Structure formats: C-alpha cells, structure tokens
Design the sequence.
C-alpha cells in the first residue's frame, strides 16, 4: 500500500492513488505477458583470414553443390560452369536452402562437415574472401554459397606453350601477321594460322584486339602480355583458342623478358566489413 502523507489535500490523495493503480497495472502486464519476439535482422557475414590447407586436394577430387544467396539471378549456374571448367564436380545448383537459418554471406560461404575441412580450404583458394562453416554432414562434399559480392580468384595465365593463337592483320602493312606470328612462335605459343583478317576488320585506333571465349580469358591474358595496349574482347567461341587482330597502332611485341605476369594482388574486403 502507498502511504498517504498527513496534511495532503483530497486532490493530492486522488493523484497518488491513480499513480499507484497505474503502476500496479504496468507491473502486472509486464509480468504476465511477454513482449512479442522480434525477428533477428540478418547481417551478411564478413570474410576472415583462412589458414592454408594442410594438404592439396585437386579440384578433380572436389564434389560440391552451389547455392545462390545473392540478388543476381542465375549466378549459381554461371559459377557451376566456371568451376566445372576448372575441374571440379558440381552435383547440384539452386537457391540457398539455408537449413540453419543463418545470415547469408557477403561474399561466399563454404559449408562442410567434419571430414571436409581440407576440401573446403582447397576450394576457398578459388574464391575471393570466402568464409567456412561446419555443419553436421558426415561426407566430404561441400556447399559453395554465393553472396552479393561473390568473385572467383582469377585463373593465372597458362604457359605460352599451352596457348593456341591465330594472328590476323587488319592494317595496310604487308607481312605484319607473319612477323608477329613468328615472334609469338619463338616465345612458345602454338600459332595455328596467320594472314589477313578473313572478316575484313579494321581497327585504326587500336594496337590489337584479342578475341577469346568464356574460358579462354586466361590464355588471352597470356597473349596480352606480349602486346602492350591490346584489348580483350569476349566472343561466343566454346574452346580456349585466341585470335589476335593487329590494329593500325601496333608497332612491335613487348620484349620477351618483360612479358611476364604481375604478382597477384590480395583481394580487398567487400564494403561494410
């Protein structure tokens, strides 16, 4: 009970009683009814530095599912094509089922069981800023979950000996394709053909155009090292061959000693991490 101080007016006493009743009501309400639970806000997981694998598991021995947790439609299928080309075995693609109800990754998450950690660490070498998560599976398969900032680690350019190239002249300089083809052949490239451009192309503002298919980009980058200022252009070819279209601004090949790949730069963390 609340104490009524002697000497207070009737109005003061009524206010005190009203305040006491309201306080009891709030107390009872707070004890008898739990507040409605609020749905936790999912925050995308940021990448951490991963250790190097204890041993090498080649991509040819990795079996994985690829799930899309990004806003980009078809990303899982596109990633599956890339990883299949790199040598991995993709079992299934689709949207992320997220069985644990965890926050989706910002870049990529690789889910694995207790027997799949080394597999996951090897797969992580193909993906920028991946995080690992262990679930309760007992087999060595893994899941690759793609976030909005997902990117592959670029495939290093192959040795010149593994690159097949055709060299075409689009300029008025006679014999140019033969000279360049001979220079590339000396560096180990497999020159399949040379001559004037069969499509009659003309590139007055370019050193060269290097055309390649979806999986020929690493080979195209190897050729680009020998032709300063050359532009890479993707076309619809399915193989890894490369076509060099020599433009009017071409002068000479980069010296062989300088036509080497730059050291790989560490990938930057996505915004917000």
Sequence:
């Amino acid at each position: 009970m609340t104490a009524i101080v002697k000497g207070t007016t009737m109005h003061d006493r009524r206010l005190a009683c009203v305040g006491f009743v309201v306080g009891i009501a709030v107390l009872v309400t707070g004890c008898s009814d739990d507040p409605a639970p609020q749905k936790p806000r999912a925050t995308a997981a940021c990448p951490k530095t991963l250790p190097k694998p204890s041993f090498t598991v080649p991509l040819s021995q990795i079996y994985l599912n690829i799930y899309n947790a990004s806003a980009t439609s078809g990303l899982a299928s596109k990633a599956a094509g890339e990883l299949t080309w790199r040598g991995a075995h993709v079992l299934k693609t689709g949207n992320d089922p997220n069985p644990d109800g965890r926050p989706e990754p910002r870049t990529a998450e690789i889910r694995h069981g207790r027997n799949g950690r080394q597999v996951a660490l090897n797969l992580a070498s193909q993906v920028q800023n991946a995080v690992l998560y262990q679930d309760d599976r007992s087999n060595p398969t893994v899941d690759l979950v793609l976030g909005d900032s997902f990117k592959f680690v670029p495939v290093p350019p192959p040795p010149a000996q593994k690159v097949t190239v055709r060299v075409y002249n689009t300029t008025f300089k006679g014999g140019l394709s033969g000279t360049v083809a001979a220079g590339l052949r000396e560096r180990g490239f497999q020159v399949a053909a040379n001559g004037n451009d069969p499509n009659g192309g003309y590139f007055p503002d370019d050193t060269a155009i290097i055309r390649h298919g979806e999986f020929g980009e690493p080979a195209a980058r190897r050729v680009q090292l020998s032709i300063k200022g050359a532009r890479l252009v993707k076309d619809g070819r399915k193989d890894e061959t490369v076509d060099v279209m020599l433009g009017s601004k071409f002068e000479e090949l980069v010296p062989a000693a300088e036509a080497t790949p730059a050291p790989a730069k560490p990938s930057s963390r996505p915004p917000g991490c």
Observations:
- Residues 134 and 214 are 33 Å apart (CA to CA).
- The first helix runs from residue 10 to 32.
- Helices lie at 10-32, 75-86, 117-124, 176-186, 217-224.
